[in-house]
Design goal:
- The chain is α+β, with helices and mostly antiparallel strands.
- The protein has a domain of 69 residues.
- The chain contains 2 helices and 4 strands, in the order E-H-E-E-H-E.
- It has a 4-stranded antiparallel beta sheet with strand order 2-3-1-4.
- The two termini are 14 Å apart.
- The relative contact order is 0.24.
Length: 112
Amino acid sequence: MEDSGVIRRFAALVEPSLVGQPLSALVMVTLVRHHIGQHRRVRKPHPAIPRSAAVLCHYRQPRISCCEWFIEDMAAYDRFLNEKLFTLDGISQVNSNFVLRNIKEETAIPIR
């Protein structure tokens, strides 16, 4: 299954609180406008954004991306927003939701 590409990679599931990142934020980022150049600029790795903290990012619909970030605490998240994310061109709005507890946490996809 690895050779055929069905299995993309192997990974270890880490307990976020034990590595100093107990707070999980679901961050929806809205772009200023729907334009391919704008998407390329925002998707391109930016030195201000710590990509290692984002465990998933999805392009949801025109102008909106959704990422899950693991961070130390609210103060660290506030610094991330004000010193990094809000400094990027092309972002019109950021909405954050914080995970209180996980109800289901699976990584396996059933194979039929």
